[in-house]
Request: fold
Amino acid sequence: MLDKNAMIAVFDSGVGGLTVLKELLEIMPNENFLYFGDTARIPYGSRTSEEIRSFTAQIFRFLTTQKVKLAVIACNTITFTLLPQDKEGYPYPIIGMNTGMKVALAGSINRRVGVIATEATVRSAKHVESGKEIDPQAEVYLQACPKFVPLIEQGIFSGPEMEEAAHEYLASLQKADVDATILACTHYPMIKDLVGGIMGEKVTIVNPAYETALDAQRLLAGRDMLNSAKEPGKLRIAFSSVTDENKKLAQHFLQRPLPEIETVDASAY
Ligand code: DGL
Reply:
């Protein structure tokens, strides 16, 4: 029997998922959270589907050893690479990233939506499927941005290298005349202003983190599993490799005091 006081686990290949944790903490401050970032094995986005699925199975097995009532996959790459059976057989429900497509299409006039993501997310083409499902007239343009995550993990959010990469990747979406663009990688909200600046003010930039947090809240509410505590919950953070750099980054992403970061070797599970 799952316990309402158990933790909501939130995980990503690195620090990017903290942009989702931030939204979760805002809408459910009384929940207990466990964040895991597989910083030793990032990036996942350029790996094969088999590798991504096997690393994720190890993370799920680690979470099974913890008191977890829900696992939130705060990573688009993992969400859109897993097969339905990969999420079966665990003692907690599992929820992935929202595509953000509903919000993007709600704000789009010309029904042309851009999606920037990792190579693995682009390979899955799940955003095209989701666009067509919501509106058969929608045109969805995918763009892989493999240079973004390694730069962001180094704490680089601006400057010539990042700007050059952004111009290179966004050119195809500008040419496609999209009027909405989804940040389909949880690292990208850190460069939202840069992306918005290049795309111009007529283009709505959608960060699906908020919708994902709402999905998680809805799932827990539907099962009567929300924590009824009156005081703020506890936060644990674990990385597979803890460095001064990623501690600093975590602080920057979350913008709140951090607990001591634990080390968890996910590959051992
Ligand atoms: N943050 C992950 C995502 O949302 C990608 C990072 C990676 O390539 O490992 O897709």
Remarks:
- The chain has a mean pLDDT of 96.
- The chain is about 40% helix and 15% strand.
- Residues 49-64 form the longest helix (16 residues).
- Residues 12-14, 16, 42-45, 75-77, 118, 121, 149, 185-187 surround D-glutamic acid (CB under 6 Å).
